[in-house]
Amino acid sequence: MSFQYVPSLFRIPEVPNFTPPNGIWRGKGKDEGYFALNGEYAWGGNIIVRDPNFCYQLQVDGGYAMTPVFSDINGYVYWEGSGYVYYTQTYGWVYCNKFPGYEPFEDYEYNYEDKEYIWKGDEFYTFSRPPYGPDDEVKMEPRGSIHKSGKEKTLKAVWPRWVAKNGEFGVYEGKDGESGQRIKGLPRFKGNGEYFVRSLNKEKGYYTYGRIHYAGGKWVIGEIGSAGGWHEGSEPKPDGSVNFKFTKPEGSEAEGSDISVSLDSYICGEETEAAFLGSAAIWR
Amino acid sequence: MEKVKAGDKVVIRASTWNAFIDAANWTKEQRQNQLGKGLRSGVGTGIVLVKNGEGEQRDRFTALVLSDIAIPPNVNEDEFVSCTPVFVGQKMTEEREGKPYAILLQPLAAGEIGRAMVLGITPAKVNIEDAEDEYAVPTPGSSTGALKSDANGVARIIWKAGGGGEQWCLLQLGGAGGGTGGEKAYMCKVNSGSVKSGYQVTVYPNGREDSSSIYDAVLYVPDLALDSDLPSGTWLIGHKCALKATGGNDT
User: Fold this and answer.
1) What is the residue-level pLDDT of chain A in tens, covering all 284 positions?
2) Three-class SS of chain A
3) Gap between the Cα atoms of B99 and B181, Å rounded
4) Which among A237, A266, B93, B141 could disulfide-bond with A170, CB atoms 3.0 to 4.6 Å apart, if both were Cys?
5) ipTM of the complex
6) How far is A183 from chain B (nearest CA, A)?
7) Shortest CA distance from A202: residue in chain B
């Protein structure tokens, strides 16, 4: 239920129309397997994705989307699913059912009797570039044995992701096949002009929220038994508000008012967690 | 205090003179603060007030991590800048490693506030684990605030009796080593994980053959391609660091 920022280059082959971020937030605990990164403006900016969706998927004629594979094929990433989309040295971008790296074959003969070209070779499609963004579609031309007989296909980009509703830290909403909401950041509550930021981890089974803490079986602001009084309430929740009632020792003349605490926003916070950064030698 | 006229015999009582001195000192203190408010006393000497945030008593010359302050500026700015800061002290844990800490100058009951040193020279008992260690750090998880020796830290051991084991030392707090152990290389053995989510590793602080001080940790390998992987059993050099962390989904 947290994210840890690893400031490092994102080592993947080139993805057309996408610049990998310089750092990535990696999910831990209940967020294990989720990654938060900057997906660029066209895709909504700050996003959360699941492995392996570190870039967009490709959809042919509105069918099942092909997922990216981050292995280098002629300098680029490739997509796999119902066929493959990859970069070739001969034709540039192709869509075919041959494993990436294969250079499709196309040839023709002229039939003098029918006075037409007869196309031969593999069945494949070529196109100039993958789509720029979610609203862009690219036409794919039939090539090889289907050069003349085949029909055009359309290529569309989709990216299953959660998009930030309001800034990097806060609620993210599902798009392109992902549903529901996800959270990135620490909830910050506010009451009587004072902010209460939730701690990253629980201590003895309870979070702290700035001056709001769990003590003596109660959620309190201040110290129970303090001569100047303290406030008693319940644990702050993102939904609704919590009233902290002013309380004082018997006989005390201290005066105070109740504090109503409710969610203000989500923030990054200033906490860090220990981790190791390592380098792996490559023997050749 | 009564005023006198020209030619009157002046007799100054001790209490009157002391009141003048107090007033002069107060004025001088006010001028030191650019905001015109009182300067927090104690900051310049390296001695602060710490509230024992743990459930048990802490002895004199033991360590508490400074995890928070009792009165932050958003609660009371005047008090924040003008009063001696009161830190909330908690025991050292793995999550708090690298955070600042103080050595208590008096025993503190649970919840009690007392004096502690963050900058200066103080005696403290340190468990010397390696004769080569030049620094002292709070022992993670210690419920007594015990200190142990380390190759890095912010408390330099400027004197010790010698040999190993727990012993009285003189510590120079502040202005010492790196503090986070970032310069030290650790041998790490991969147990599981992936280049995307990070690897679960066993850390061998004293080398591959010394299994007495090993512990588990997370290790990221930033330079590996996303489609690469490291098999379990791989040995790596790791550098310990504190990486930014924030919250996520609770449910």
Assistant:
1) 689 998 776 788 999 988 888 888 999 888 988 999 988 888 889 999 998 899 999 999 999 999 999 999 999 999 999 999 999 999 999 999 999 999 999 999 998 988 889 999 999 999 999 998 888 899 999 999 999 999 999 999 999 999 999 899 999 999 999 999 999 999 999 999 999 999 998 888 999 998 899 988 999 998 888 888 999 999 999 998 999 999 998 888 888 899 999 999 999 988 888 889 887 765 54
2) CEEEEECCCCCCCEECCECCCCCEEEEEHHHCCEEEEECCHHHCCEEEEECCCCCCEEEECCCCEEEEEEEEECCEEEEEECEEEEEECCCEEEEECCCCCCCCCEEEEEECCCCEEEEEECEEEEECCCCCCCCCEEEEEEEECCCCCCCCEEEEEECCEEEECCCCCEEEEEECCCCCEEEECEEEEEECCEEEEECCCCECCECCECCEEEECCEEEECCCCCCCCEEEECCCCCCCEEEEEEECCCCCCCCCCCEEEEEEEEECCCCEEEEEEEECCCCC
3) 12
4) A266
5) 0.84
6) 5
7) B95
Boundaries of every domain in chain A: 1-55+159-185, 56-157, 186-267
- The verdict on a CB contact (< 8 Å) between A276 and B188 is yes
One-letter amino acid at B115 equals R
Q: Of A181, A180, A179, A133, give the one whose Cα is nearest residue A157.
A: A133
